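Weekly modeling sync, notes
Attendees: AB, CL, MP (scribe)

Item 1: holo prediction request
CL wants a bound-state model with zinc ion before deciding which constructs to order. AB pointed out that an apo prediction alone won't tell us much about the pocket. Agreed to run with the ligand included and paste results into these notes for async review.

Input as submitted:
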Amino acid sequence: MLIMFKPEDIEVSAKDFISTYASYMEDVGIVGKGPDGYVIFPSKTAPVKENHTEFFAEWVQLNDALGIHGVVGMDFYTDGWFARDPKYQTMDDKGVKMEHQICPNRKEFWQYGAEIVKEIGAYPINEILLFGTGYIRDHFCFCERCRTEFAPIVDQEPARLSYAYLLENEDYHEKWHQFRSDKVHEGLQYLQDAASESDEATGREHPLKLSVEVLLDPETGLSEGARNEYGIDYSRIGEITKNVLINLFPWSPDLPSKGSSEYSELVESLYFVNEFTRRGGRASLFRWGVTAIEQLQELKALGKDVGIDRIVSTFHYPSDYSRRRESAIGNY
Ligand SMILES: [Zn+2]
């Protein structure tokens, strides 16, 4: 069980907190870069929340000294600060922009993310949890760059490319999926290369792990739908970072209860984990806003049914949750 904290969650100093709870914890996480785009450590790359840098330094040092597995959360394409520049915002074919989310087809943003991974990797931590790593949904992204690159692939003028045009032709739609999936994994490869560079620079004992958040939602076809909706392909992640963080039913307050047909479908959709693990990958179950012990027991029971022994959670929903939910499941 890993809990991801924000410094605001903890009313005492890092030292007091960790000295109180250290004996209960094997690993503990802190949000290093949130969806607002700010980081809580000194950075030459990203904007910094100066009032938390001391906490962060103390936190990672104590974890390291006590042999606690240190984990840092990092929002990736969900970056409100970087997205202030409208040219980076992802958008649908009507030109409706998402002010909080970067188009995944941005090499310069991959480089930006890679720099941040290296900065986090300079600290004695073991793992980075990467949130917001894919497209919002299948009908993204129609920014100028995506139009210009993709339209020629389907014999269309960039300005006339529309989602309806792709839906009309199965072959075009599949090319769309392939194009987007390539972008997502190319971006992840940049981050993985940065993690490997950091391993060499620090000479750390175990490689810095990157666990990639994947959304598992009934509305988007659970694990089967992930590639087409988000561009996320589990087998490709298995080759790049080898670690996935399965965000269960991100837009629903409840998980299906054991015994229901929805529960069976959920378990079935997690069969891929066997193959993923067999090939050397590791999967964790994740859920936002776990505050009751019953919720925790529910997650553990599910983990048991699907062969996943690691549960990750937060006390809170992300600060931009309602906006994310709206853009993911809003009506189009
Ligand atoms: Zn785009």
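Recorded for review: The longest strand covers residues 209-216.
Action items: CL to compare against the apo run; MP to circulate these notes.
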